[in-house]
Records
---
Amino acid sequence: MTRSIILAASLCLAVMPHFSGTHASETETSLGSGIEPTPIPAEHDPCHRFATEDDFVGFNLDLQLEGITIPLRVPKIYMEDRWKQKEGVTSTAFLFRVGIGDFDPVTRAETSRRIKQRVDNWMNFLLNDLLPMERLVLNRLRSEYRWTPKKGEEIPREPSRYGLFHIPPPVFARDISREILVDQPTGTPNTLLRCSLPVPKYANPQCSMIFEQDRITVLMGFSRPELPNWRQHRDRVARFLSCAISAG
């Protein structure tokens, strides 16, 4: 459980830029036309390594809230840590880092190199077991807007870009540094995003994204310029996860 908490914290609770008083819709274009999302080949299969690699490792994801353990198997090149490379390891969370375009594994050393060179063409995703989506939305509202909606109170949503809906902060909210986005206009969303506002003076705005696949909560992190392709990122991770479950 401790490892799960540390991994989740490193992915989603990292310090974000601080900004007050501007909504993302007002500043989205201020990043400049030179920042574009990483190209994703239309026919590229994120499971391609399952067909080309011979060395695999099996592991077990312990979903304590669900009360089940899910066996998975992936090419060993995706498991950088030695403890993950042992067959049959059980944990409450497993973290992966991959290139956005090729979905090949990205090592810690390579991640550090890309960060120094300000190359953001990679993302990470954590397989975990979190609260139900409606609880996660409320947690985000409390942490980002300091707002706890009353029971039965409607949570407004406004159409945003890229097929998403923005949950605006209440009028009393101050010092807003991140925005909350969902994929549904009403009801419980399937996907929840939290993104730092794209203000020019902040060099590296980030997004985190949560969705559920095969009873597994997937917690993703990527650079905000990759937001236009959020749906592809989600679907490609879901595809990879389905291959890992099938192989398990």
Note: The helical segments are 2-12, 24-27, 48-52, 108-116, 133-145, 230-247.
---
Amino acid sequence: MHRLKISTLSVLVVFSALFSIGCGSPEEGTGTAMNPVAPAPVNMDDPVTAAIFQATVQITQFKQGALLAPAAVEKTGLAAHSVYAEVDVAYGLGTLVASNGEVLLITHDHWPDYRGIERPDAVQFHDRDGRLLLEMSGDIFSRHVLFRDSGTLIIQPPQELLSGDLVPAPLGHIGRVAEGHLVTVVRRQPGAPSRLDLIQARVEGVDRTAGLPQIELRSLNGETIEPGDSGGGIWLEGAYVGNLWSTVRMAIISESNEAEPILAATDQSTAAGLTAEVIHLVDQLQAVQGLPPEGDTYLH
């Protein structure tokens, strides 16, 4: 006999370089999918699909912890003469959007969760195929932050991200999103998390009662949102309208082992919608905030 509970978990992933913690790595996921679904082929000839991928980047944050004790090094089987530090890694997605003649990079803001990557040591940006675009120090990354509210993080992107094949996307408005609308969601590709994938979802509701509007989503074909998908763009009619925040997982609790429930992935997730007021605030911040000069502030 099993009892079912519904729990909501952040979709950010943070893990140790030597052992998984939190909700695991993108390769592992955090539970068992109720109805596993193979990703459908993505039509790159579709202009909307191409535009979504051209505006999306993968973001990886690194935080070095304390040096491992000799006993911990021995357990890993690594060479005894080497010095190893525990490294936390957090994955997410971001979208370049155009707003009033400026370019913004929008992602989620629960990077500090699990192991507390509040200020990373280094940040990497990759394209949709996992190719490294830019690496910068965590201090410089933090100085590019324009806005954060514990759910959405808005950054003034480094010029290096704008000089390649990336193309900022048009910014939509949450007022256009309503229950029943079909939206496109960006996630990491199952089985190949260094690449990106698109799925379709139906809007099941929009909660505008507090803070940024929250968009409740259900994928059309049973696909799930997994660790590392946080920040993935929500698109309506070719325009960006929000970013992934969280996913709903079903906790299956066995009477024989209630202390260790099995978290099963569902087809439900929650996204944050952007309002005109937030974008106006960011535009004002851009006008007054002094940002670091480009050049030797980057790792490469």
Note: The radius of gyration is 20 Å.
